Records
---
Amino acid sequence: MRKRLKWGTFLENCPVWSRFSFFDMPTLDWIGKKAVVNHHREVPYHLLKCDKELSVGDPGSGNLLVQGDNLLALKALLPYYAGRVKCIYIDPPYNTGNENWVYNDAANSPEIRKWLGKVVGAEAEDLSRHDKWLCMMYPRLMILREFLSEDGAIIVSIDDNENATLHLMMDEIFGAKNFVANVIWQKKYAVANDHKTIAPMHDYLLVYRRSEKWKRRLFPRTEEKDRLYKHKDAQGIFRPDNYTCNKTADERPNLFYPITNPNTGEEIYPKRTRVWAYSKEEHARHIRDNMIYWGKDGKGKVPSIKRYKHLLRHGEGIVPQTLWMHDFAGHTDTAKKEIRDILDDSRVFDFITPKPTLLISRVLQLASDSTSLILDSFAGSGSTAHAVLAQNKADGSTRHFILIEMEESICQTVTAQRIARAIEGYKDIPGLGGGFRFCRLGSTVFDETGNIRAGVTFNELAAHVYFAETGEPIPKRTNGKTPLLGIHNGKAIYLLYNGILGDRSFGGGNVLTNPVLKMLPPHNGPRIIFGEGSRLGTARLKREGIIFKQIPYGIKVT
Ligand SMILES: C[S@@+](CC[C@H](N)C(=O)[O-])C[C@H]1O[C@@H](n2cnc3c(N)ncnc32)[C@H](O)[C@@H]1O
């Protein structure tokens, strides 16, 4: 018994297992789960190939649009961006079951059906709509988690088709303790009068943080809120606020007492069914500190408490809440209008239900700061990129985006076009500036036999080797001109590949020999060297503090 307790405590405290909620939470099971829980590890690394023709504006702007299945695209991006993304916003297919919307219902799209057949095997035939959706989402969320920085958060749009299952699945993947909120977004403002049961008016935004290091941000104050602060006295600008609260005199007899207006001498009691919000002692303090407002002429019959602007508890911002009404975060009609204005093409709506830019701006205000990297792996019409560009313009910041969209036609004619127009301007709307690179998935880094595929460049392999060895993205300063990729935890990591040292050395410098060793940038500490072979003996390597790893075998392939 004692032993089991210890083992349980160990697992709860262990960084990997503590994510899972075996101990106090129910977990979700479905057909096909076993086949997908570790699938993200088996997904091969692909190369990304950029297309200059479809890229727009400043190519060095740090923004990226990738066309391809997000499972492969995310894996391809991982060596570059693991742990670097502050805010992931995704709007996956809601799994509505509406078969006409093949692309909106990705669990039934031809690509996903093919993928499920491959990954889940024969069992895929028996999968229900929900099983398929869960199988599709699980490995993608597992990889997305790896992108988040410790102070990052993921926000997922969903509706009641999968809200409950997604919540449980995210508890399992991100840890129930990292659940932040399930925000309700009022997506519609007009009720569908022909609805047969209860007309749905809202979607959800499930918010999970990566760890307790995440800090939510405040929403900017609105002019409407600021306008309430229109009074002024010697202590500053204030707005009058209610002096009563919603309890009866029977419930709170100590809060039911007369207050005298000093200007009229009138004794005043709270209205029936209410009491004062403050005790006699607090009221006395308010009188002493001149905190009570009796109206413009001072002769009012109702006291108010003065709320001073400079004393606002959270300074400039508004504390986020779990209810986002349409006037705060937009609605689906605004989203459609935005697309119509930009693209003049309503066929888009046959395939995707866009989100309003304002909704995603709210997400950015809540969960990103001025230099954050934002990732959206179900890009659709590109509203996330548009919101990032607009938010940068609004607050003079430099957020960057990475978007992924699977459908070639959507990606090229909708996503890329919309972002391009947002950047360059359209009709009489001025451009927001910036640019993005358009990329597609290339071949895998390794071929079927595990060898490095011909044509893989030094930089591509370097990013892969560094990430496989350290679990971290290659340091930015790596420029492809030196075999030293970076130093991680005191260990220097080198790659000898594609004649990085030129042909002065044996085998184009891909084999570790005495002369090659002399040419390597020095490091005072342990060294890990990846190369095609080594001519140095075990004793010599040990003396030099070198661990030699032969490529491709020494590189973790997935
Ligand atoms: C609900 S829409 C997103 C709408 C988007 N938020 C907007 O405002 O326009 C979902 C998008 O994800 C895309 N998608 C579905 N499965 C995908 C996958 N496996 N990889 C990449 N994109 C995918 C669909 O083609 C569709 O465009």
---
Amino acid sequence: MKPRILAFAGSSRAGSYNKKLAAVAAGHGRALGADVTLIDLRDFPMPIYDGDDEARAGLPPAAIRFRALLNEHQALLVASPEHNGSVTALLKNALDWASRTADGIDGLALFRGKTVGLVAASLSPFGGVRAVAHLRGILSKMGANVLADEVLVAAAHHAFDEAGQLTNALSDKLTVQLMANLVASARWSDAS
Ligand SMILES: Cc1cc2nc3c(=O)[nH]c(=O)nc-3n(C[C@H](O)[C@H](O)[C@H](O)COP(=O)(O)O)c2cc1C
């Protein structure tokens, strides 16, 4: 069976560089034999987490759909923008909602032991390094195994061609390597 990888970016923006980077990584993952589901968090609108709302109404429908996808995939590929030196509110909010216990399911179980690959694209010369460091900490705390590899794409407004491919050969090669490790890890977790 093909290993299943869920890929998404922490940006809802139509022209998001991180969506482009997630798409590049998804393409490499498919070429490496994985079944990659690429989703757009814009299609999963969730209000900012509020414990009173949760107590009253439970999880928002989009969080339930997001959790179902997490459950169906063995590994994750997350492309993280950097907002003021950290992850975006959109991404953290989706992770927070997904982590809750609902319908008898501990949301953290959807992350525990799951391998995650991290990539980032930002306008700055630093390529989102601070966001990735924070995201690594967040996902590790949630129990995921975050791959040591990471791909940081600086000056993202100059990094993609018209077809959405990375113009820098080394960045592209690093993305292939990261996806190869992610696919191998997902295969292994399927076999274990
Ligand atoms: C609120 C806000 C804060 C930002 N802070 C940073 C930052 O700390 N570091 C950085 O490299 N870029 C920062 N940027 C610029 C982003 O790199 C840029 O908006 C990028 O295009 C976001 O990713 P996206 O294209 O996937 O939406 C910030 C942008 C916004 C809107």
---
Amino acid sequence: MLAAAVGAAVSMGVSVAVVAAPTAAAQPQSGPSARIIVGYRAGAAAAVSDTAAAQDAGRKSSRAQGKLLRRLSTGAALVEVADGSSVASVMAAYRSDPAVAYVEPDLVVQPLAAPNDTEYGKQWDLYEPTAGMNVPGAWDQTTGTGVTVAVIDTGYVAHSDLAGQVVAGYDFISDASNAKDGNGRDADPSDPGDSAGYFECFLQPSHSSSWHGTHVAGTIAAATNNGKGVAGIAFGAKVQPVRVLGRCGGATSDIADAITWASGGTVSGVPANRTPAKVINLSLGGQSSCLATYQNAINGAVSRGTTVVVAAGNSNADVSGFTPANCNNVVAVAASNRAGNRAFYSNFGAKIDVTAPGGETRRETDASGTTTTPENGILSTLNSGATTPAAETYKPYMGTSMAAPHVAGLVALMVAKKPALTPATVESLLKANTRPLPGTCTGGCGTGLVDATKTVQAVS
Ligand SMILES: [Ca+2]
Ligand SMILES: [Ca+2]
Ligand SMILES: [Ca+2]
């Protein structure tokens, strides 16, 4: 993990299976004939007499060919509408009959296949009933098509499970030494690695490259149903990598410009963003009150209709001391573990809006930092290079850095369903459609654990 340093914003990732229960997807029955279910009121002849119900079926079908197929266990009549009859008009005829309590189509429901991504079974954070965020039901409604999500982070390292999901971004790191790509700001947000040697960054120990932005991007929009790797929450959306974090973290001045540019605002010396983001993910922060530089940039983004999602921080402390999560006009996200408790590292407090899965790849008591419970982390796209890019891989991380992109992905689903949603409405819908944490949270976890299916349903 990158430690916090005064004056520097640092990433909040802590360096670091099951089969989905099918849910039913209702589809209207089609074919040459159609079936409807008719519930008669008690006392109606057709409620008990099959002959009466059969005669009724014949009368209400335009060609007098409607048939009673059988009675259901509920007593309702299963009726076949004659070939050529309008199902809608037959149903209307039943509905206007005072002897009929209800009439409804005999919908054909099918198991909604879980995505075929080979690692999907390990993504408890998406589907597990205990403390997952109930994502598959939202995919019936939208997958985020048409929305750009800016990931303001370490940039993007090539990964085949993300390659088709990425649009042009930008590298906002001004300091060439911190950037490790040989120059200051440029149009290429590729992540060359953010590793650093001992004491190279203030007084920090050495650390390997994190590929943090690529992990975050995979949670939001990894290619899904492509028979490999992980599934992304808003896999119809595009990720815009905006690079601000280098080997020693990132500067507020660069991050603020990145927020402005990502949301379609103007930054001197930088070409206009051709695909402005409706959602910004900031899995970064530092210990400070909210800086005016952040607040001004955030307010500008929100005024352009962009929702700003921020990780609460990993210090097991009140979020009020961590910026930009403590700024106004953001969605501040705490992290929960697989049991639905506040994760041991997650910040908390009155400024938390909602909680999302951040995972725990080890227990709090493991002072060594060794990964002991990889199955309880958040699995996503990564690279195996310790310094520079090497082979692509998938690894579990934990952190509020991992929780925030769960919410950013959900926001992408919401705004895909209704592009006119304002950031304020997005935030209130997120908060209103959470469920209580199944475990415990001391200190404040906002309104609870986000629920993707319920939240997207509430967008109308
Ligand atoms: Ca550069
Ligand atoms: Ca670059
Ligand atoms: Ca995949």
